Fold:
Amino acid sequence: MKRQTVRFTINGEARELAVYPNDLLLNVLRDQESLTGTKYGCGIGECGACTVQVDGAPTLSCLKLAVSVDGCKVVTIEGLAKGNQLDPVQEAFLDNSAVQCGFCTPGMVMMGRALLDEKPRPTEQEVRDHMRGSLCRCTGYASIVRAIMVAGEKAELS
Amino acid sequence: MSTTVKIPATHLETGSRQVGRPLERIDAKGKAVGSTRYAGDYVMPDMLHAKVLRSTVASANLRRLDVTKARALPGVVCVLTGADVPKHMVSTDIPGQTGSWGQNTGQPILVHDRVRYFGEPLALIASESRDIAERAMTLIEPEYEPLPGVFDPIEALKPEAPLVQGVGNVVASQMVRKGDVKHGFETADVIVERVYRTQFIEHAFLEPEVGLSWIDENDVINIHVSTQVIEHFRVVADAVGLPYNRVRIRGALVGGGFGGKEDVTVEIYLALLALATRRPVRLEYTREDSFVGHGKRHPFVMTYRTGVKNDGTITALEAKFIADAGAYVFLSPSVMVYAATAAPGPYKIDNLIADAKAVATNNMYTSAFRGFGAAQACVAYEQQMDEVAKAIGMDPVKFRRKNYMRAGDRTATGVVVPSAIWTEQCVDQAWTALGEPVEVSGPIKIGRGVAACLQGYGRLTSLHDTSEGWVGVERDGTVTVRSGVTDIGAGQVSALAQIAAEVLGVTLQDVAVYNSDSAVTPLAGTTTATRALYMTGNAIRQAAEAVRRRLAQRAAKAFNVPPDDIDMAFSKVFVADDPAQSMAFRDLVRICAAEGIHCSELAMFCAPFTEKLNPETGQGQVHPDFSYGAHAIELTVDTETGEITVIKSVGAHDVGRAINPAAVEGQIEGGAVQGQGYALSEEMIYKEGRLMTPSLSEYLIPTAMDVPQVKCIILESGSGLGPFGAKGIGEAALTPVAAAIANAVADAIGVRIAELPITPEKVVNALREKE
Ligand code: FES
Ligand code: FES
Structure:
């Protein structure tokens, strides 16, 4: 197999990478780019721990070939905060104690962000429905759902 | 030296500035921004990638294991089989940091000749890339001679059953005898009997097992690993034949444990491969590896027989547990102790027989899981309480109230509990919190259930558990905590910071915690058995108080008052009655440092030490103390489809003292949802020992769509043995949930489904049978 060159931006930075056609975006991010905030939880699209944004859409990076993001904008959990200024979703996760072991947190935050981008004031049911593919074994989801709703409310107030 | 500071009066009045507040955990931010490094996020130059090859049969002799092709594959650096590694058995954490007694799992590191379960490790591969390791796996050809297997613990007890382990396949048993059961049943008006069953359960922590090993310049094997127990360094050293001080285990923040990272996972494999290759080695399980590769929660068959008088007095209980131990012993003996001694639950039952047996089969081995045997017992005793109440026509809450164990009563093993027993408060509050029932109609039926529980916290007292912790103050007024404790996600580390901050009068941000390194942090013991806060929290409190005493003594001299009059808060040291007399905390530390006053302390906290239980009667102390709690459920059942929807879920627990109420709520909410999965959807299915549910789309843990907002009721008796009167909550949060759900289903449809999980199919079948 031969490597191919892909060009895309990661967290706003233009990158040109040599990847194999079967390299998964998850592994490229973690191994080549050392962006380890994106997590491996199952590798087959069943847990949501690997969620990133590709051109604004929440995407399971364990199912996405790296070559397929050529020309795209990829945002990972590391790219959400602006310096010390956390994203309101991250802020709300901290305020609402939505982080326990934290292994699901990056994926959850990325999913939450994507929902609020589309629907700034979701109902509880909408949040739960949107998050159904993202598993958490620690929190019982209550605090996560709360955090996303609070982030939406706060954004509207400000 | 003294400057004037204004101390806000409210904080002085409450006396507590850090403990008891829902503070943001010190580990939360790194996790939310993705900068936290878990064990799987470390790499090293020249690192190899490892894989474990596992058996695809459950019971066989391994005739041949030909690895020549795999060894010849370019990029493969090392292949190890049973013939290449020491025969040492894989150990559990039982040796841990406690020296009182040991326990071997009986499992060889790699199969030598006999395969006893599907997924048993056959060979280890280290290669230049993950892909090459995977390809090498396909080149290894095991040759099996099939042997008859046994896959059901009751079958395994029959004399003609194939022998897997032990004598007649019994690998562990525990009995409890109290009072006169025969007489008890004779005086009963009604006797109720039922068999309850539970299933294999998978921990399904989000982070699969992972670790990185390397040999350093001092010939020490370093292992950076996701584990609940860094003190497996001794087990690893034994396995590979090194002195204990040549193996160093560094934990990391753990992506979930729940008991599944209590036994050794990848550590021994990593040590062997690093020794064989002299290169760093990384081993990361796939989700399937993880599902196949670690022990499960024991399935139990529980036969309960209860005698009761018409006025609701329980006169006798006989409880028999048969648990599937799977192919190797692991923690089954301790799980049986927990189960048998919890058989009567939080009730006063003077005539009691409880027998728990763990039986070997060719299924996956079973070991620790949040609740540890006591959770299974609760599934039985709380369903039985409802059935007994129904049999005598009494309200289930009223019936329970009549039988609660209360302060001064003796437990099943004859011990007086040293703390408050608030079962009644917990049940009443959880039950009341359900409020008005939702409206239903047509085929939808509504049901309600409650369950109470007791759950020991702290390891078995026969293990002689200890925890060491170190606290020091720095000249800029910051505080350093060192403790070997691992943080598996519940906020163990943050709680230590909160305790040190409370005692030394600084803020949480002023405290740094260094933890989880077996070579450099004081050995704190395991993060298991709801012991971390109790044991390590006490050690850190002791250490911090010793430092505080010395600092206060010096401050007292400066202000010319007795040391008891000195208080510390907001990074100031002041005279309690006259806060105007104060100095900055850091100035005091500087003075002490200059005068050679010791500004740090290493403390050791010891749990009560006892003998093992009396083998004939099961009498004696089991746990340092117990937590008591309850869970209440309202749900609906669609009688046409069998679908169950949990509408309300309320956990009420006496946590003694909530060090961080937000963290306590997190435990109760998480426990409620894990318990719901246990009751309704989760089951590791084995067919002839082979795992049929090796993925998260087949093994169904609850999603955000499946669960309601959990209501948490935190009660604080202040009576626990933990720091500031805290009890443990980690396990108790889960224990009563499944029984409450089972009781609610029975309430809704009028038939009891005594076998978990209660699936729609079982509901429909039960309703059909009822007609
Ligand atoms: S790792 Fe991608 S969904 Fe689980
Ligand atoms: S916080 Fe542990 S999996 Fe969600």
Remarks:
- Chain B touches chain A through 57 residues (CB under 8 Å).
